[in-house]
Amino acid sequence: MTEPSEARERVLQAAAKLFSARGYNAVTVKDIASEAGIHHASLYHHAPNGKEGLFVEVTARTLTQHRDGIAAAVAQYNPDLRRQLSAIAAWLIDQPPLDMIRLIYSDLPAVKPDSAEYLTLLAFESMLVPVAQVLEEASVRGEIAHHDLGSIAGALFSSIESLHTLPDAYLTRPRQAMAEDIIDVFIAGMTPR
């Protein structure tokens, strides 16, 4: 593990910004070094595992932040399903978009299989498991009913994340209000009949 330093943190922040905006394949070591304000040859001092090591580290850090943020949001409103889902939506809307489709179909196939497997598992545990747990707990309480809450959690997560794709110029309402509508549709569609 490389020692923490201000320069290393700049490298990590630069890598996170570029990978988030462009994806793994479109970013070079020179891009990261330039964004961090260092010579590309010295990047390896701060990131000895190179581009892939940086990608894995910053992606894992982002996913862990999401896991912790979602857990904190959910804990505030236990056992209120609507408020828990609203808090998850607020967390996701307040964060930079993850672009999970690009991650799964472009970024992860470009890294070593063990790195891809690690990040896939971390993404699942950080993003889908907490939402599925909220839904499962509501199901146990009899508030909702559905046979595949894992798929519903994925669809709900994807629907809320997709609000990031709407250009600000075309928004007629805040993203959180739109997320509330999405949550209403999901809850109404799962209400026991």
Report what the structure shows.
The chain is mainly α and 193 residues long. It has 2 domains: 1-48, Homeodomain-like (Arc Repressor Mutant, subunit A, Orthogonal Bundle); 55-190, Orthogonal Bundle (Tetracycline Repressor, domain 2). 72% of the residues lie in helices and 0% in strands. The protein has helices at 6-22, 29-36, 40-46, 50-76, 81-94, 100-107, 113-140, 149-161, 175-190. Helix 2 (29-36) crosses helix 3 and helix 5 runs antiparallel to helix 7 (113-140). It is elongated. 29% of the residues are buried.
Kindly summarize this structure in a few lines.
By secondary structure, the protein is mainly α. The protein contains nine helices and no strands.
Shape from CA axes?
A: elongated
* Through-space gap between termini: 54 Å
Q: Which structural class should the secondary elements be placed in? A: mainly alpha
Work out the helicity level. Answer: over 70%
- Going by CATH, the homologous superfamily of the largest domain would be Tetracycline Repressor, domain 2
Q: How large a portion of the residues is in β-strands, by DSSP E?
A: under 5%
Count of beta strands: 0
Radius of gyration: 19 Å
The CATH architecture of the largest domain can be named as: Orthogonal Bundle
Helical region count? 9
CATH fold description of the largest domain: Tetracycline Repressor, domain 2
What characterizes the major β-sheet? Answer: none
Low-confidence stretches: none
CATH class of the largest domain: Mainly Alpha
Domain module tally: 2
Element order: H for helix, E for strand = HHHHHHHHH
* pLDDT averaged over residues: 94
